[in-house]
Amino acid sequence: MPRTALRVRRWAAIAVLGGLLAGCGTGEADTGGPAAAPGSAGARTSTDVRPIEAATRITDVKGVTVSLPKPPEKIVCLVALCDDILVELGMTPTATNSQVLAHPEFLGEKKAAEIPVVPGGFLSPEVEAILSHRPDLVIGLEDTHGKLAPALKGATTFWPVQPGSWQDSVGYLRDLAALTGRTEQGEKAEKTFRTRLAQAERTKSDKTALIVYGSDENFGVATPESDVAAGLFPKISHYPWKSRGVDGSYSLEEILARDVDVLFVETLSFGAPDGKLSDKLAENPLWSRIPAVKNGKVIEVDSEVWAKGRGTRSLGVVLDEATAALR
Asked: pTM value?
């Protein structure tokens, strides 16, 4: 797969331990015991939620400490996880560079259009534009926006996040709930997600699932080690896909050999949309031989939610859509 496409996936979705599609999974078993093997079903998810206490200082799941003089009210989101958490807490960002808010399970297109957009895009948000909103807190992806920290220092607080699993996402939700004082909303959102995941586990499908992403025939496979949404799939289906590192991916020949029953497709746009990835892959004669294709079980999903959201609301949407397709 070309490095350009791989870099976009890194920026759009998730890098684990600082390397795209490389390294070991970061999520631990839900019981708090040793980490489950990457790609395994792991421990059964508990629906219990520990109380969240309001705080002005937290240390997140990656060891980053955030300290604020008072609960933040004006938050600028440079990564969709931030938007996701704020919506779960009953808040909206002061400004954002994500499109996930337009999804009907978030704010919807009309309300999302009212949120100011940070110019410069996801990769290079403009510092002056960020600061023009006088934010109490700016949340960005560590490996993409960490370089902005020196320019923001002294003017606002910057919180670099780097989710590698759904457990990380829940941890970030709890931390922001504590900082904003919206503890009840945080507990409710965590409970809702855990209940969805536990239910999906109880009705685990024996079908083989696959998530592919890309903008053209040079596609990639989302693996539990490198993608938060894909990390849910071993719990709800047969998902035999492992990370092959930065330069490795799967061929259509290998996918054909695995007898994929349900295929989820994330079309990533490089600028203006230029068609669905599934339509482009259909030009390859091997595509039509995949069981999911033959049986009409190819589902184009919203990449803003599936690839970029990574919070409990986005992952809840992923679970609902995936379990429905896997029945």
From this structure: 0.87
